[in-house]
Structure formats: C-alpha cells, structure tokens
Write a structure and sequence with these properties.
9 strands; 3-stranded antiparallel sheet; 34% strand; alpha+beta
C-alpha cells in the first residue's frame, strides 16, 4: 500500500482529533528499562524541546524510581539533581543531551522550576500534582510530565506508536513509483 500526501494528511487528522493543544517540539523518544508495566515520562524544557520516555518496569515504582531508571539507562546523556527537604524531594535540575534547566523558583515570577503534572490511564488531560513525585506510585499506562519555567500543562505529544506510524507513512510516501 502506498501512502500519498492525502493519506498522510488523513493519518495526521485522525491522530490529532481531540487534541486541543499543539504538539511539543519532540526532540527524542526513548524506551528504557525492562518489565511488564509501562509508564511514561515527559520533560519539556524552557526552550520547548521535549523528550518522551517509555519506562518499562515490574510495578511498585514511584516517580523518583522512574527518573532513576532513565538515568541508569542513559549515563552522561540524562542527568538529574534533586534537593531533599522535610516535606520531600524536589526535582531541581534535568539535563538531557544538550538541553539543561535548573531552578527552584526565584523572584519575580517564581516560575523557574520543574512543574510536576500527572495523567493516569484513560485521562486525556494533565493534572497538576498535589503529591511529590517520590510519593506517586505508578501503574501501567501512567504518565508524569515535567515542564520548566511555565505553569502550563505539558504540551501534547504523539503517542509512542504514532511516531512509528508517521515515519512508516513518510517512508512509503518517499518511495519512487514505477509505471
């Protein structure tokens, strides 16, 4: 089956139905870890560069564990730093490749920190978290979103399988035709 530009447009239309925000500037998508349970981590830097991680595990992990799984899988590429307080840990700095942001809310707007959002299975909308990431136990299909220097929810990103579908459609569209 060949996919013309009309076909590709139809696929994009189906994928974007129900999405009321633009896709983020997705720079990288990775699958890390091992296990039968899948959770997702999304990091959106101040420059809007966004990274999506599909984290495989065997359950019973919290948000801090997910970040540690990613760091162990990508040493030198993914780095993070937390600060511990009496009320819990705070994600202070994240470095992924050439992108890095660090902060804990300085005046005048107090936005320069990693805002923590969550989304569970079956939910389309992000919810600003009212628990710390070390206290959130993950289930199959759960999402954690981190946005630096903005109080806005994480931008929409294509679901992990959609990127492969779009790439396949683009490859088919780019093949020369025989007559």
């Amino acid at each position: 089956m060949k996919c013309s530009s009309v076909c590709l447009s139809a696929i994009l239309s189906v994928v974007t139905v129900g999405t009321d925000t633009a896709w983020a500037g997705l720079v990288g998508q990775f699958t890390v870890g091992s296990g039968t349970v899948t959770s997702y981590l999304q990091f959106e830097f101040g420059n809007t560069n966004t990274y999506l991680y599909e984290v495989l595990h065997n359950g019973g992990v919290d948000g801090s564990d997910l970040i540690s799984i990613v760091a162990a899988a990508q040493p030198g590429y993914f780095e993070f730093d937390t600060i511990s307080y009496s009320f819990g840990d705070v994600l202070y700095e994240v470095k992924i490749g050439a992108d890095t942001n660090a902060g804990f809310g300085t005046p005048p707007d107090y936005l320069d920190y990693w805002h923590y959002w969550t989304r569970d299975v079956g939910e389309r909308a992000w919810t600003e978290s009212f628990v710390g990431f070390s206290d959130r136990v993950h289930s199959d299909g759960s999402w954690d979103g981190w946005v630096f220097n903005s109080a806005a929810a994480p931008s929409a990103v294509p679901a992990p399988g959609v990127i492969a579908l779009l790439a396949l459609a683009g490859m088919r569209n780019g093949r020369s035709r025989r007559r």
